[in-house]
Amino acid sequence: MKVSILQEQLARGLGIVGRAVDSRSTLPVLSNVLLATGESRLMLAATNLELSVTTYIGSQVQKDGSITLPAKTLGELVSNLSPERVDLTLDNATQTVNVKCGTTNSHIKGISASEFPRIPEAGNADIVLNGGQLKAMIEETVFAAAREDTRPILTGIYVHLDGNVITMAAADGFRLGVRTATLNQRFDKPRELVIPARTLSEVARIISDESRDVAITLPGERDLVQFSIENTVVSSQLIEGRFPDFAAIIPKAFNTLVQVDAADLLKQCKRAEIFARDNNYSARLTIRPPAGPGEPGEVLVTGKSNERGDNEGLLDASVEGAALETAFNVRYLIDVLSVIGDGTVRLESNGPSAPGVLRLAEREDFLHLIMPMSVNR
User: Fold this and answer.
1) What is the mean predicted confidence (pLDDT) over 150-158?
2) Among the three residues 214, 230, 247, which one is the final residue of a domain in this structure?
3) What is the pLDDT of residue 376?
């Protein structure tokens, strides 16, 4: 193998596939990145056997070949090379690659490409979504997925396809995020799958501002879901099991409705979090209806620490229904308000022991539910 490529492109490619490298595996080859040439392109690939990422980079190929190189070593070297042409030359006898860039000359020992697991090829697209839309859907749900493996099904994001609507949902037992979007195609029969949250986080990370469409290949004979993003393919195993019936826990009505500026509420939650972290991150929300005609309602956000003090932040709000005093994990509020951005957030509740449902006044495609905590006096 002999190939020439720009340092910037090689560094970007290694950054794309690097997250799929399994550095803790007992198989040394899984700590490596596969490099292979073909059709005037250099292919980079990495896998942990559950998630595989492949990207193709335009290059000048003088001699075809393939090799796997230690991901960490190659990544660190390339990121520190000067921004010019990089020449990669493989010595098949020693399975060593000479890396030459400007006045820098390095040699990296590798493992034969024949020992690398087979990388899935991209399948035919079943769905095509706008890149920005898919990225937003992921970012507005993925943070609600469970981090621990005690209930593996909750470490994934539930995807439901029915008619021309796609629904994504994530839950960790304390909160639930739901996002919907309209498709350009229809599914006559509903389909559902649970994709690892880590996989979708990688998909969102790879989607750039320039990414237009993302082609999604649904599981068929192979139990794989694939995302084709320009010159990159992400392939992932699914999570087996049945996702909880989250629709059953979403209240159909409410006793109290609050509408408040999302950015202002986020600022008050961040201030309350400074003190609430000593109290299991519990922040109290005191909601008061208008005192009289023409007056605003109020939302008081309180974070308290018995050792360090407390913080109170008062916001004007539109309040309908009964007064309410409840408490939530302020980190969960910060998470959801951070992805909402600007706009008006609606908070619906049926009382201090009921979940809080957050929606957007300007959109109907987003819902977030947070279970309450005990109210600390």
Assistant:
1) 95
2) 247
3) 57
